[in-house]
Design brief:
Elements (H helix, E strand, L loop, with lengths): L1 H28 L4 H23 L6 H19 L5 H30 L1 H25 L3 H26 L19 H13 L1 H13 L4 H21 L8 H21 L4 H9 L1 H19 L3 H30 L4 H21 L7 E3 L2 E3 L5 E3 L18
Antiparallel strand pairs: 1-2, 2-3
């Protein structure tokens, strides 16, 4: 199973590499305007945000829904290949891809956490980072026409779907079917938690969409910009492999710490945009602000909620869907009108996120918890391993009290 999960992550994030790095260029080569490209690529995050709420309203997250999502992914990749001549066909293809991605990755993340545990999760997830950077290094050498990138997208999608199908089939032997029977997730009552998780991705909007433009505008060469991106992925892989011991500690404390580190990272980019040494140091912090934060977040939600697959799906949709969309929108306006302050705005957003976490921690008076043999027993019966007496909960999660 570990080998299959590694294959899935490798090819899944290879798809993301093609999608993020090359497809915008492909559409530009095909003659589409910047506004057309923006509309097409804004559709997927919004769909990714909207889909989980359909499951809150009653749709079931099971293997049948998962297999349908795999079929939609394959259909959308095929549609991309034959839709380059039509804006609306491309828009439909991207919406379909967003629907598939919003279901497939969260379901496999659930299987990974169930099978591997949070300590070993990163050692398999790192293959996704390897796939992302390898497809970038390989495809850039062969991108002679738009059809080359679309062919890569098509083949990688079919390989990913095949590996995911086999993983889901084998996972039936250890997935707890009963855990999906009751939805215990209330976003409004847990709003501080979800606002904090979302704001992290909003703060990343400047980085994912404008980092290359930002540093090259400050006289950093394109070669150095590529090295900075590559270095960030390398340290991410390093953290994913060695983070197991850290994830045995207080997960909420990790979220708080990585949030402050992220704000510091963006502040460095704001103050020293031309200093190559500091730029590389800021990229080294990617190991904490992305890799460790992501692993701690999905592990925290895994232990917090009974409806584990929906929790992962909402995390993917709300943070990487709506958060990424809002982050890109804010960063775009900031860079157009106040380009010097791009990463200052990101730092302020990350600090706002930290305030949500700290305020929630200080307002935990209604939460009842007991430390029994190193395990917190929360009001809803969920047990969260920890190594200290520090609470892992927010006041906004205090609805789950022991009557």
């Amino acid at each position: 199973m570990s080998f299959l999960l590694a294959i899935f992550y490798f090819f899944y994030f290879s798809i993301i590499g093609v999608y993020i790095i090359f497809l915008p260029k492909v559409l530009s080569m095909a003659g589409y305007s910047a506004s057309d490209i923006g509309i097409i690529f804004a559709a997927a995050p919004l769909v990714r945000f909207a889909v989980p709420f359909a499951f809150i309203k009653g749709l079931k997250i099971n293997r049948r829904a998962f297999n349908i999502a795999l079929f939609i992914m394959c259909l959308s990749a095929t549609s991309f290949y034959f839709s380059l001549d039509s804006f609306y066909k491309l828009l439909f293809s991207n919406i379909s891809l967003g629907i598939g991605l919003s279901i497939v990755l969260p379901y496999v993340e659930l299987i990974s956490l169930k099978y591997l545990g949070k300590e070993d999760y990163g050692k398999i997830r790192l293959f996704g980072s390897v796939g992302f950077i390898l497809v970038a290094l390989v495809l850039v050498k062969f991108l002679s026409s738009a059809n080359v990138a679309l062919a890569y997208l098509l083949v990688l999608t079919f390989i990913t779907s095949l590996s995911a199908f086999v993983i889901a089939k084998r996972a039936d032997t250890f997935l707890d079917k009963g855990e999906e029977s009751k939805n215990d997730i209330d976003i409004l009552k847990d709003w501080r938690l979800w606002a904090g998780l979302t704001l992290m991705q909003v703060s990343f909007g400047s980085f994912y969409n404008f980092f290359t433009i930002y540093v090259t505008d400050h006289k950093v060469s394109m070669d150095i910009a590529v090295y900075l991106w590559s270095f960030g992925v390398v340290v991410e892989i390093f953290m994913l492999y060695f983070q197991g011991s850290l994830l045995r500690k207080n997960l909420l404390l990790i979220l708080q710490a990585t949030t402050f580190i992220t704000a510091f990272r963006w502040l460095l980019l704001f103050i020293f945009p031309e200093n190559i040494t500091i730029l590389f140091f800021s990229q080294a912090l990617h190991a904490l602000s992305f890799a460790l934060f992501h692993s701690a977040a999905i592990s925290y939600l895994f232990y917090l909620y009974k409806h584990k697959s929906l929790a992962q799906q909402l995390f993917s949709g709300i943070t990487y869907g709506f958060g990424a969309f809002l982050g890109a929108l804010i960063a775009g306006y900031v860079y157009e009108f106040y380009p010097v302050h791009l990463f200052l705005s990101s730092a302020l957003i990350a600090l706002l996120e930290a305030i949500f976490y700290i305020f929630g921690e200080l307002q935990k008076s209604r939460t009842k918890y007991y430390l029994i043999k190193g395990i917190f027993i929360l009001g809803n019966g969920i047990d969260i391993p920890c190594v200290s007496n520090a609470s892992l909960t927010f006041s906004s999660i205090s609805k789950r009290t022991i009557e």
